[in-house]
Amino acid sequence: MNVSNQPKLTVKALRKTYGPVVALTDASLELKEGEFLTLLGPSGSGKTTMLMIVAGLIHPDSGEVWIDGKLATYAPPFKRDIGMVFQNYALFPHMTVAENIAFPLRMRGVPAARIRDEVARVLDIVRLPGMADRLPRALSGGQQQRIALARCIVYGPSIVLMDEPLGALDKKLRDQMQLEIKRLHTELGITVLYVTHDQEEAMIMSDRICLMNDARIGQIGTPADLYFRPRSVFAASFLGESNILEATVAAVDGGRARLRLDDGTMIVAAGGADAVAVGAKVRCMVRPERVSVLATGAAADNVLDAVVKDVIMVGSITRHYAHLPGGQEMVATGLTRGDGGPAGRGTQVRLGWSADSTVVLP
Ligand SMILES: Nc1ncnc2c1ncn2[C@@H]1O[C@H](COP(=O)(O)OP(=O)(O)O)[C@@H](O)[C@H]1O
Ligand SMILES: [Mg+2]
Fold first, then answer.
1. Any atom of ligand 1 within 6 Å of the Cβ of 196
2. How far, in Å, is the centroid of ligand 1 from the Cα of 162?
3. Sign of the dihedral through C-alpha 119, 123, 129, 130
4. Helix, strand or coil for residue 277?
5. Three-state secondary-structure class, residue 137
6. Looking at the 3D structure of the chain, how many domains does it have?
7. Whole-number pLDDT of residue 1
């Protein structure tokens, strides 16, 4: 067997129900060694359930978990070589930082002298040397979370699971910790399965994102895959802002779909064209930053007449909210210009964007 190609973690067709509630179903994915994969989805979509099954803290109704090529679906948690970090730190309040970090090593019978070295080593890694003798309550939330991380990585687990670990921190600390966890991931070469409901956090941190909705995996791909080539309205709207137009497929050729909007206007889409058939009712998506307010005489693959309803400047970005003749709203975002932008409120404009920026959603 080629060990380097063997997935670190494979889950196959996992299903978990609680009475009539389906918490997770049809869930299959693979994690490569050293990969950072994030389960992203709204609250209740099954993210924690998946993580708990991988950790061995709950058993699935059906399906399999494979770790390092070994079937582990029903293996007890401590036989899985997995570390876990939760949102609420879960440090032992009556133990010092050093004792907290030492705990998993003591459980594994590591000699005292080595424990001391290891504790010092991971305190350096999480950049909190000198904190060894403090109690958790004498630390800030961010510091406590770093200690929880240190305790998780100290025994060198081959997979680290993190369930919304930054959820309790304020925005500034969260931004710092995101980069800190990324750094640890790169430096230690660990495999990470991460959970968040925050799409920005998922895009910043992940090699790949597994988008979850309603107990199912919706789409798995790189952040760019999901952002530029969403395969559902849910994916298009959960990650970033999107303009969505309803249309009928008029023709498909050369990897492009020609779409007719309700008012008869034609639009060309290069994304997702292989997955739709002529005559189908579809929606198509274009990101606001791809839509421009066209200058007089300027051309684009797709052009729609619209009236600007609002112009909102948000620092470096300005948003133009415009209405199409049918009443539908479209948003165009662009870098803020010193002259107040291309069009003021109430102006009749043409919105333009390329076929390459247009994705058909079946
Ligand atoms: N112990 C439980 N008993 C009953 N329902 C549960 C239990 N755990 C989770 N659920 C339900 O399963 C679904 C998925 O939950 P969860 O995996 O925690 O979602 P997420 O982590 O994405 O917010 C939710 O509808 C939740 O209410
Ligand atoms: Mg959860």
1. no
2. 17
3. negative
4. coil
5. helix
6. 2
7. 45
Cα of 193 to ligand 2 centre, how many Å? 13
Among 233, 253, 273, the domain-final residue is 233
Per-residue CA distances from 156 to 32, 188, 263, 310 (Å): 17, 9, 61, 54
Do 278 and 198 lie in one domain? The reply is no
User: To test the ligand 1 pocket, which listed residue (40, 43, 49, 88) has its Cβ within 8 A of the most ligand atoms?
Assistant: 49
The stretches in the chain having pLDDT less than 50 are: 1-2
The enclosing domain of 252 has a CATH number of 2.40.50.100
Atom of ligand 1 nearest to the CA of 49: 17
Ligand 1 nearest-atom number relative to CA 46: 17
Q: Is 201 found in the same domain as 58?
A: yes
Reported as a single tens digit per residue, the pLDDT across 286-333 is 999 999 999 889 999 999 999 999 999 999 999 999 999 888 999 999
DSSP output for 35-66? -EEEEE--TTSSHHHHHHHHHTSS--SEEEEE
Q: What is the largest CA-CA distance in the chain?
A: 77
Q: Is 357 in the pocket of ligand 1 (CB under 6 A)?
A: no
Q: What is the pLDDT of residue 362?
A: 79
CA of 12 to the centre of ligand 2 (A): 20
Using the atom order of ligand 1, give the atom closest to the CA of residue 163.
21
